[in-house]
Write the structure tokens for this entry.
Amino acid sequence: MKSGDARAGSCDICDVRERSICMDLDPRAMQQVEKTMARRTVAKHRAILSEGEPNDSLYIVLRGSFRLSKLLEDGRRQVTGFIFEGDFLGVRQTDQSAYTAEALEDSLVCCFPHKFLDEAAETSPGVKDRLIAKGQTEYHKAQDHIVLLGKKTAEERVASFMKTLAEAVGEERGGGFVEAPFSMSRQDIADYLGLRLETLSRTLSALKKKGFIDSVTRKSVILKLEL
Amino acid sequence: MKSGDARAGSCDICDVRERSICMDLDPRAMQQVEKTMARRTVAKHRAILSEGEPNDSLYIVLRGSFRLSKLLEDGRRQVTGFIFEGDFLGVRQTDQSAYTAEALEDSLVCCFPHKFLDEAAETSPGVKDRLIAKGQTEYHKAQDHIVLLGKKTAEERVASFMKTLAEAVGEERGGGFVEAPFSMSRQDIADYLGLRLETLSRTLSALKKKGFIDSVTRKSVILKLEL
DNA sequence: CGAGTATTTGAAGATCATCAACTGTCGTGG
DNA sequence: CCACGACAGTTGATGATCTTCAAATACTCG
């Protein structure tokens, strides 16, 4: 066991605890979590949920990021969302997962079987409420995505995406700029925005020329805070 | 009080009971529903939920249909969904409704304050589970909508919509045809599909020419069952 | 019947997609 | 450490789809 994982079994060092469901659990349930809790590493490009396959656990992303996608019969792929640290995966138990969730980089998740959550919910009513709330958040994001795809131009889509990414994972740099790292490829972003790779690339160049983007590489983008 | 409403106060004649949450309620709660239940008529084009405004009740559509929409700052409108008999509106209590819900025709809803549902949930645990399940259904529909907008051509969008509509409200006619009534305008459909009115109209004509659609009027469409 | 609105159709133009070539980046191995 | 190969991303030229603007037709309601 590597040194980084030595204390991995303890919830004390969990970074996302306060955003998570653990704070809803009563002390007894929390002890149970400490004991049975399973962390799981997910290697880059590995799926943790697969479209059409059953899902019986809720995963909380501790480190890394994921890509949610759906496939059309003929192979066209739509990326329906990206998931970052602190976010949830598989909020509900399902016979058929609605989408595939694949790690964009080597990632670490904390695993809560829904069976366990159902039991915990009996003594900790906040658990189900939090799941409902998370489900609502997912739904709102989906609605915003629908507006983006249905009504926005290529430039608006790319700008919206960069802004959202900056809000999710960006870090402030000097002079009113934010830097947001990419864990996803251009193709992933294009598939998320309903555009072709080439259109995305051209649009990024255009936004840079217009000064909205300061610099953009394979790894990250630096953009203006406002707008 | 008109004759049609004479027994409107009774749940006995409710058409959507078995699809609804009432079956999850224990007898005592059900009595409570019978007593406090509020039905509400919603006139054509009236909003029952408004984007940005709080919502404190769950509505079950008994008669009629609704249009869900979101507005972009500059007034562009995206229709994010349509709601028919037996469907739910305002599944969760919110400070800010994510969308506007407007009646497409004179409609009738049954109203359950979330406060009431929370109380009922204490003795009828099935209630929250059903709400979670309904939320999930909404989310899945949103995901399918995302795929439609992100990856499908105009013709595929229109065909998908007609098929979905037929499944939701269609009635079989002879010879492998279904008839689905429209309660929404062409503009509503176009705003749902991320197309312009004119493109929708042209595409409908094209589908008719191809034989996928038998006939289409302002009021209804008749289409082939398969495909 | 007639005014007003909804829908369809036509012609021209814009945006985005496609096909193709080029450039940059990363990792590997000499 | 540099060179090479492979892949990721950018740029260019052309074309298709969908939009826009405009006009005609159909439908609805008083």
